[in-house]
Amino acid sequence: MGRRIVALALSGLxxxxxxxxxxxxxxxxxxxxxxxxxxxxxxxxxxxxxGTDPLATxxxxxxxxxxxxxxxAPGSIGHHGGRWAIYRATWIAGDSTELITSWSELQxxxxxxxxxxVRDAAADFRCPVLGDPSPIG
Length: 137
Known about the structure:
This protein has two helices and eight strands; from the N terminus they run H-E-E-E-E-E-H-E-E-E. By secondary structure, the protein is an alpha+beta fold. The longest helix has 22 residues, at about 1-25. The termini are far apart. It has one domain (about 25-135). The protein has helices at about 1-25, 105-110, and strands spanning about 25-30, 35-40, 55-60, 70, 85-90, 115-120, 125, 135.
């Protein structure tokens, strides 16, 4: 009986030890194709400059809801599972309170010379995008 109690206690600790890291993941969000996707941090070796999926982060947006903007999302042709090639988006003209929620919208602002987009290869990382996106707003 004593061995059974010890075995149950140890198996309970093992379950808690496995479940704790999952619960401790840092969730965030990213915009893609005018939808909001949940993302979570994932420690993975992504050498500088080897990211494949473009993701822009904003350096000076005046919109508190602005998050990163990805070119691809799950199910998009060309999506590589969140192996991000990082770009820094900086407002240099136009309305920095505008909420950018798609890569095409971001590219339009770059073409209008309202946003400067600069590759930051040293910041490449891996962060999976979860399906079941939410509408924005």
